Structure formats: C-alpha cells, structure tokens
Amino acid sequence: MRVSGRPPRTLPHRGVAALALTLALLTGACAGHSGSSGADSWPSSASARAAAATEQLAKNSVVPLEGEAPTPQLPVTVDSSDGRRVTVQDASRILPLNGGIAEIVFTLGLGDDVVGRDITATFEEAKKLPQVTKAHDVSAESVLSLHPTVVLADTDTGPSEAVEQIRDAGVPVVVLDPATRLSDVTTRTTRVAEALGVPSAGKALNSRMKKELAAARATVPEGSRPKVAFLYMRGSAAVYLIGGKGSGADSLIEAAGAVDAGVDSGLDRPFTPLTSEALVTARPDVILMMAKGLDSVGGIDGLVGIPGIGQTPAGANRRVVDLEDGVLLSFGPRTPLVIDILVDRIHRT
Q1: How far apart are CA 178 and CA 157, in angstroms?
Q2: I need a labelling partner for 65 at 20 to 30 A (CA). Which of 20, 232, 253, 262 fits?
Q3: pLDDT-based confidence at residue 42 (cuts at 50, 70, 90)
C-alpha cells in the first residue's frame, strides 16, 4: 500500500457487471482483524490502528473466530437468491465460488472443510486449494471432480449452464446476493453461516466485525469530511473510470467519514468514463485506487500526468491512497481492516 502527501472480479460482482457494461459501451465490444481477542485489544488511535491493519493485510491471511471450529447442525433448508429452497445435509466438503464467501467460510472456522476455490480467493489459506474457475468462468467438471457436498455461489456466478450441471448432479447449490455495500457484509455472513448449519458462529463473527467497524469509525477526526474519488484504471487497456453511486467504494468512503466525490458530483452510475470535466466537477481532495490500477498508469507520477488529475486538489497535493485489488472491495471479514486504513489515510492533512 502506498500513501503520499501521494476486473478482474476483485470488484464486487455487481460492480464487475457494471464495469463490464461500461467497457462494452466504450469499446463497442465488450471480499477480521482483531487478532484472537477482538476489537477491544486493537489499538485505539487511527494511526496505530492503520499500522496494525496494514501489517495484518500484508500477511494475506484470515483470522478465524476464537475457540474450536463449530460443528454444523444439519440438515437445514435455506432460501437461495435464485428463488429456490435448498436443503443442505452435509457440509464436510464445501466449495465457495467467490473469494469473499470463501473468506467468510474460513473465518467461521470451517476452512478445513473447503475443497476448492474460485480465482478470487487469493488469501494464503485458500491458495493451496485446486482452482475450479478459468477466466472467471466456473468449470462444472472441475467442481464435480472435487465431490463437494455443498456449493456456495452468488447471482453473478456463471455460466448458468455450469451451475445447472452442478445442481443436476445432485449437489446443493446455495446462491447468495453479491455484496456491494458495507451493510451487505453481515447479511451475507448470516446467510453463509445458516446454509452451513453454524448460525451461532455467524452471529459471533458479525458481532466481532461490528465492534471492529465501530472502533475504526470512532477515530474519524471531528469535522473532517474530505472528498474522495475512487478511480478504476487499467492503463495498458486505456481504461479510465471514476466511481459513482453503487461502485462499492462509495460505501467504504462514507464509512470512513468522507464524501464520495463522484456521488457528490451527481454520478448516479457505478462507473463513468473519466474526463477532465468530471474531475473538475468532482474536485476530490483524495484519490482512492486499487494497487494494480495505480501501477498500471506508472504510479503517482504517471497518475498526475493524466489530463485533469493534476488540476484537482488530490492531484496537486499528490494525495493518493491505494489498497490491494483483492481486499479493497472484497466486502468480507477483512473489510474492517480496510476501514481502519482509510480512516487514517484519508483524513491526514
């Protein structure tokens, strides 16, 4: 992570869809820190919390709930977001088809029962598992070769034919709504825990995350409301977008006690092509980016050379915050770490 006085499907899935639509229009073709003892033991100042969060994220590891792994109480029948009712009878071989969902499963303490991973599950505990997606598409054959007893997907998991093939083979497939807002984190955690027969663990994880988020937000300086623009860039592909309502970043920016510059300037779509006029209107004090996006334009020096960037307060003062692609918009148990870092970096003067 860099700070200065400077899709992959690491975007939330609904954000990916919005981004893909934007790119198609442009080209004509185309988610728990706290150690083991919870928020009460975490540092209390913004700078100390950010330092601890940065250290934890550098490990690229999840922090499971304290105590022994929960024992699933099955069978359970749950609602699936594709309109079905799904009965799960066995959670001994779990296959999450989403990185954020995988984080939840591991943090609940059920990581030993996970048999495979989606391409977006990049944290250390998942890396050793066989990958069942290629170019973000699910391979039904790869999934079925792992003999899962339950598959956890979301409404953007595809292709639909592969999902149906898995279901037709007799594997329960529980579909969840994508997480695109901070409030979605606890909702999705509850649904994952219920589907795996460990609702008490879900409540415990939600309680932990709520405490962590409250502690992070408590360090926001009084009266500080900087304007932050989320820029999604892939320089090699000439992709330059500014986030607006529904980008996912808008929820994080708000939680960190700041104002989303894109939303504030009237951008009512998740992503809009970046122009000098849009930047002048947004007039951000701080720019937020994914790390690979910033690297793709040549770092901060390259970023401020893009027309319009240098004329914003953020560009003129080189106020840029970047976070790893797989973490920033994951909306999972590590999201409180993201808020810790944003609160400190965004409000620095």
Answers
A1: 10
A2: 253
A3: low
